[in-house]
Amino acid sequence: MSYQFLQLHQAGPIWTLKLHRPEVYNALNAGLIHEIREVAEAAEISDAVRVLVITGEGKAFCSGADLKAGLIDPDLGNVLRKTYNPMILALRGLNKPVIGAINGVAAGAGCSLALACDYLIAKEDAYFSELFVQIGLAMDAGSTGFLMQSLGYHKAFELASTGKKLSAAEAKAAGIVAEVVSGEAWEARVAELAAEFAARPTFVIGLMKKSLQKAQGMDLADVLEMEAQAQSAAGRSEDFAEGVMSFLQKRSPKFKGK
Fold first, then answer.
1. Cβ density class 70-102: b for 16+ within 10 Å, e for less
2. Which residues contact 248 (CB under 8 A, 6 or more apart)?
3. Shared-domain flag, residues 103 and 219
4. Which of 171, 198, 225 is the last residue of a domain?
5. Do residues 106 and 185 share a domain?
6. In a domain, 1, yes or no
7. Residues 140 and 27 grouped into a single domain
8. Which terminus of the chain has fewer Cβ atoms in its 10 Å neighbourhood, N or C?
9. By residue range, what is the domain housing residue 193?
10. Whether 104 contacts 58, CB under 8 Å
């Protein structure tokens, strides 16, 4: 697979998607959005990939929509339906863990892209900002839901209505970011983290993703039934059999993601 606006590095079970428009701080145009979706869909059907890492080239993770690229439709709702929404759904629906390696600014739709990832690790000088209000737009690409899920109404409203910057440390304190890493340790820790996730039972992680995303707003009885259905699938997996066997044999498990 070859791409114009991103680089895809495949190292065994680890796929690393690097946004590659550093001249515009990895701003999202229609082509890049399509390519991100394409990678996510390819990862979905590949038995080889166990974890997807998303990061940016240069100083930024993603500065948001490329406003200089022009609009493919004057109705911005149609633009979202054709481009951003399918990309976000492909990432959130991916049945494997997605690590957001936030190497710099994540603003506007770039913040949405970061929040669409399952596990965020941020470089210490990175920051997040929902810049939509500064150009007179509502939030999109999932940020409305992601902020509510992570922060609750009042903090979500604060960030949405002010466009203020949230530092990597503040994002960690708020519960959005799992790890903050220095620039010197960045590449090594991202690689180590990806390897850690690739070694986990990614089949059941995919089940967990699906259940967690559905659980909010469901009543307890429905959550319990959803968990039972997921556990039925997990109990038939090769990884469960390996997990039990490794426990009985007192050794480290060797999961396959199946």
1. eeeeeeeeebbeebbbbbbebbbebebbbbbbb
2. none
3. no
4. 198
5. yes
6. no
7. yes
8. N
9. 6-198
10. yes
Indicate the number of domains in the chain: 2
Q: What is the CATH number of the domain that holds 221?
A: 1.10.12
Catalogue the long-range contacts made by 154-159 (C-beta closer than 8 Å, 24 or more residues apart): 159/129, 159/130
Tell me, what DSSP letter sits at residue 150? H
Please tell me whether residue 246 adopts helix, strand or coil conformation.
Answer: helix
Residue in the block written with tokens 């902020």: 147
Q: Are 180 and 172 in contact (CB under 8 A)?
A: yes
